[in-house]
Write a structure and sequence with these properties.
The chain is of the alpha/beta class. Helices cover about 60% and strands about 10% of the residues. It has one domain (about 5-165): 3-Layer(aba) Sandwich (Rossmann fold), CATH 3.40.50. The chain is built from eight helices and five strands. The longest helix has 25 residues, at about 50-75. It is globular and about 45 Å long.
Length: about 180
């Protein structure tokens, strides 16, 4: 199987926290009969502790190293949908894995929607400080150009259901697959 054809077997969802990557990923995997993985859940499963615990114990860099290893292993599989952590794209190796091994879909979300979706979420280590809005703005400024650069498709998720976002992706996929 040529590399371009193999690349289209996998779907990788990238974007900021609160964009709906996990919900949409689960839906797409069911519809496409693919196996679903969430990189954050896989890191927790392998380590046996929460992401917050990993951040507290190993810091940002320790978490990113674990995340990179998990994404390297998962992205090498076939016929998967992978929901990635929002910051994974900061690691150059992860960007290389994703671009080479699947279709990358950037799930974009506006700041207000992101804040609304995340305001009660206590599992996000980066948002546990005094000013989560500033954190999200800083992350957006840093990551937005990277998301756009690696994306094969950009989907805005604001004010849209999982079904609606997933259907946009499902409509786009056959066109992408037939172009290989």
């Amino acid at each position: 199987m040529n590399d371009d054809k193999r690349r289209h077997e996998n779907i990788f969802l990238v974007g900021p926290m609160g964009a709906g990557k996990t919900s949409v990923g689960r839906y797409l995997a069911r519809k496409l009969d693919k196996t679903f993985y969430d990189s954050d859940e896989e890191v927790e499963k392998r380590v046996g502790v929460s992401l917050t615990w990993i951040y507290d114990l190993e810091g940002h860099l320790g978490f990113r190293q674990r995340e990179m290893k998990v994404i390297d292993e998962l992205s090498a599989l076939h016929d998967i949908v992978l929901s990635t952590g929002g910051g994974c794209i900061e690691t150059p190796e992860v960007r290389t894995f994703l671009k080479a091994r699947g279709l990358v879909i950037y799930m974009e979300v506006m700041l207000k929607t992101q804040l609304d979706r995340l305001k009660r979420d206590k599992r996000r280590p980066l948002l546990q400080g005094e000013n989560p809005q500033k954190v999200l703005i800083d992350l957006w400024e840093k990551r937005e150009p990277i998301y756009e650069d690696i994306a094969d498709l950009i989907v805005l998720t604001d004010n849209r259901s999982v079904h609606d976002v997933s259907n946009e992706i499902l409509t786009w996929l056959p066109n992408k697959l037939s172009s290989t």
